[in-house]
Amino acid sequence: MTLSRILATLAGAGLVSSVSLGANAQELTGTLKKIKDTGSITIGHRESSIPFSYLDDKQQPVGYSMELCGKVVDAVKAELKMPALKVAYQPVTSANRIPLLQNGTIDLECGSTTNSVDRQKQVAFGPTYFVINVSAAVKKDSGIKTFADLNGKTVASTSGTTSIPLLRGYEKAKGIDFKELQAKDHAEAMQLVATDRAQAFIMDDVLLAGQIANQQNPGAYTILSETLRTEPYGMMLRREDPQFKALVDRAVTAVYKSGEINKIYAKWFTSAIPPRNINMNFAQTPAIMEAFKNPNDKGVQ
Prior knowledge:
- The chain is of the alpha/beta class.
- The protein folds into 2 domains: 24-129 and 234-293, D-Maltodextrin-Binding Protein, domain 2, CATH 3.40.190.10; 133-230, Periplasmic binding protein-like II (D-Maltodextrin-Binding Protein, domain 2).
- Helices cover 36% and strands 22% of the residues.
- The protein contains 10 helices and 16 strands.
- The chain has helices spanning 3-12, 30-38, 64-80, 97-102, 163-174, 186-194, 205-213, 242-258, 260-269, 286-293, and strands spanning 40-45, 48-49, 53-55, 61-62, 86-91, 108-110, 123-125, 130-139, 154-158, 179-183, 200-204, 221-223, 229-233, 236-238, 272-273, 278-279.
- Strands 8, 9, 10, 11, 12 and 13 form a 6-stranded mixed beta sheet that branches. The protein has a 3-stranded parallel beta sheet with strand order 5-1-6. A 3-stranded antiparallel beta sheet has the order 2-3-4.
- Strand 9 (154-158), helix 5 (163-174) and strand 10 form a beta-alpha-beta unit.
- Mean pLDDT is 91; it is low at 1-25.
């Protein structure tokens, strides 16, 4: 009789605890099994979602979200006892991030993705790591003070983001009319405003702040005080994958509970960041503090 069968027999008789059977007592499934089998984990990242996930001057993905995802990668290495685990990086856009996660091209998406109830029908999310307000960036001399002032104007947005349906809902509810231009990413959308091809860029306030800070004349722009909705951000993973979901939740929550999250936040939001050493001066809001204090993966309606 093999050792495993002996242990199983003894366990069935109550003579050996399930813990003593070792790590093999629970077989790997889902993403963790994929990572174990391939010896690699693939991180989906953005190229211009400053300061969450973007390329530095060496064209390497960096940012707040990337650093938090690094904590998850460390947890995977420890869980699978694979210190030499290969980490691959795959650029994604707002339009293709969900399909690339679903088809297995990426294993974890680390960007500026809103956790919504609708998206939870397709994917799962880790604990909220940021909370934003959807607003608009405009030129200060445009005369635009509210969303109603966009009537008859051209508005830029990023393809595949939640700002598009929000904008259309506002348009319908308020009876205003505007032309919409969809860009492939946030940098392109901001350039539509910078070159006057659009009069406003509708997006999450912190992303707008990042884009404005990277303009040649940041002082020429402002973000409207009016907002369309408050939304939580979280790293995105595949649905119905309880093992990996549990690991992600533990890894992120540990960063919050230890207080390390405050150091990471300060590094990316209230300090000079690469490649242009800009400081976003975006202090933690009460909603962000609450997300760190009571970790959750609740999606916005």
